[in-house]
Amino acid sequence: MSEQSSASVTPEDEARLAAAKKRVGRSAVIGAIFLMATSAIGPGFITQTATFTATLGASFAFAILVSVLIDIAVQLNVWRMITSSGKRAGELANSAIPFSGHVIAVLVIIGGLAFNIGNIAGGGLGLNALLGIDPKLGGLITAALAIVIFLIKKAGPVMDIVLIVLGVGMIIMTVIVAIVAQPPVGDALRQTIVPDTINFATITTIVGGTVGGYITYSGAHRYLASGHVGPEHAGPVMRAAANGIFVTGIMRYVLFLAILGVVASGVTLDLTTNAANPAGQAFGAVLGEAGLRIFGAIFWAAAISSVIGAAYTSASFLSTFHRRFLGGWSLQWATVIFIVVSLIVYLSIGTAPAAILVFVGGFNGLILPIGLTVFMYIGWFRRDLLGSKKYPLWLLIAGTLVTVLTWYMGIVSVGPIFAFLGIGA
Description:
Elements: H1 2-8, H2 11-40, H3 43-56, H4 60-85, H5 89-96, H6 100-131, H7 135-151, H8 155-181, H9 185-193, H10 200-211, H11 215-224, H12 234-264, H13 278-316, H14 328-348, H15 353-381, H16 393-418
Helix pairs in contact: 2-11, 2-12, 3-10, 3-12, 3-13, 3-15, 4-9, 4-10, 4-11, 4-12, 4-15, 4-16, 5-6, 6-7, 6-13, 6-14, 6-15, 7-13, 7-14, 8-12, 8-13, 10-15, 10-16, 12-13, 13-14, 15-16
């Protein structure tokens, strides 16, 4: 019987099977890049960039450059270690230092909760710009729709298509605003290297918003699904991580130039009121009422997708404590509860949504060096867990320097970051 089954598999069948596996692997790789990029380009990313450009002007260009360099060192190390070991972050950390994976999981879940409160706040701002409704009501509608979309499986693929279309629309609108606003490009380029002002709280916040919390591990975990695990796949892994960072870095700089042009023209952006939406105001100043409405739709779509992504990825870290959360209804209900708790916290606090969106980036920037320290320990002392004792020395040195830098920035930035919520000095 087995001989007949073996004989029935033709070379054509084997070729089709190999091609199918290759397509699945390629899809997972593209999905990993897309997940990291879209996680980093959410409502927090947009609001933080607009807020800091309005307050720091062209000096913010330096913060963008530093954040991109930090992103590179963090993601290349984390992606390479996770995919080389074939283990998720919590499992790998526990293998190196007992219970350190549990600490990382707790921090990611707390940071993910902070992210999600900000994402719901972003949804409220988006609907406020689009429809003119109260941001709190907009946040409630966003959270409710996110739960519905998450539970209806057929809605997922449709949402993905909508997000891609709106994402392209956002890029086009940003480029148009950047061209029409005529920003002082020469000054921006100069201050990218030699800034008039250096603000560590700003750098910590935008680093946290693009590579902090669950974002640090989301792309690498998605890459595991490609099946391309083990140290022999290190080259493609690092190229994939670099591509994701490149996309977010370019988008942040273009958005910065667009906002800078508006601010340099004399427009004052509202950063403090409950309905403050600095990025939306900048787009409205250049593109008019229609531009503001379109921006609201795009901003809201980015927020609702981030609500789902942040909740699901953060809830999946519960698998560090119990394997039932690897999938199925346990993970689904945990994700729903995560969204509901985020909504309740958002509705119960009086802080302006824009301030929340800035704070959550800073908060995740504060907890970033803890997990990074564990991964640097693995790179230096537990390479046996990575499938090979060979690991690029330059990558370890870069990662270690960034770890020390993020610890320093976190320590000196605690007060200013909590001041975004009216706490501290």
